[in-house]
Design goal:
alpha/beta, binds nicotinamide-adenine-dinucleotide, SDR_fam, oxidoreductase, Oxidoreductase, NAD(P)-bd_dom_sf, oxidoreductase activity, acting on the CH-OH group of donors, NAD or NADP as acceptor
Amino acid sequence: MIGEFSLAGKRAVIVGAASGIGRATAHLFVEAGATLLLADINGDALAGLAAELGGDMATAVIDVASRSSVEALGIQAGSLGPVDIWVNLAGVVAAPAPITQVTEDVLDRLIAINLKGVFWGCAAAARIMERQGSGSIINASSAGADVPAEGISVYALTKAAVNMITRTLATEVGPSGVRVNSIAPGFIDTPMVTYRFRRPDGSIDTDARAALFASRAETAALRRIGEPRDIALTILYLASDASAFVTGQVLRPNGGSVMP
Ligand SMILES: NC(=O)c1ccc[n+]([C@@H]2O[C@H](COP(=O)([O-])OP(=O)(O)OC[C@H]3O[C@@H](n4cnc5c(N)ncnc54)[C@H](O)[C@@H]3O)[C@@H](O)[C@H]2O)c1
């Protein structure tokens, strides 16, 4: 591997590591030589991932909707040594609904997890990295932050906010040598998107899945939807020294589905 892309000797915190993009990122970071602290609300899935990765994997069961839970993760991470990389991937979606039908519970839940979770994660990481004088923070945004679509107002506004948190923090910590960027994936085949083709009994409607994937592929210049590893590779770039001159940016691994 070209030296700048290696994570050998680097320590990374991955929040939302237990599924989808986070899981693929954990695997890729281990391949790239990083030491990891994996965090998620789903303790069982987290333990499964740690066993899969082998070695001495540090884990933390946290709820990013709780500021104190995120701050405790920062203290745990800082106590283990330097933190070179902090990835905020924990996120949730809600069933599509027009703004006239959105409930306050849904609005509050998505803001608590997708927006405030990233905000406090950024604060915890930045405190450590400013002291060190180095580090890279990567936040999960979405193509939905750039282009309005019916029924996803709440998710989209949380992701638009993530982009502004990213840019603002980048200006604040850049002089200390700390970089902050967002990734804005297009449609990726992860457990997050299964709500779109699950039957009421929880089973997967494979025909509906195939039809949705085909229609999403059709709207992308590359004529395919994304795999978690596609996004993990973008995150690896932003985490590594290969992106040493990149900060305050939104990178869009989306197969060409959105070109704002
Ligand atoms: N899959 C896509 O198409 C897509 C597209 C654009 C952006 N994203 C974003 O990428 C990120 C990862 O998505 P994914 O597709 O891998 O989803 P996923 O559902 O597979 O994984 C999300 C992870 O976040 C964890 N999580 C949820 N709430 C949490 C909380 N309160 N505290 C701690 N952890 C929590 C879950 O347990 C899960 O492990 C999300 O922020 C998502 O919004 C996904």
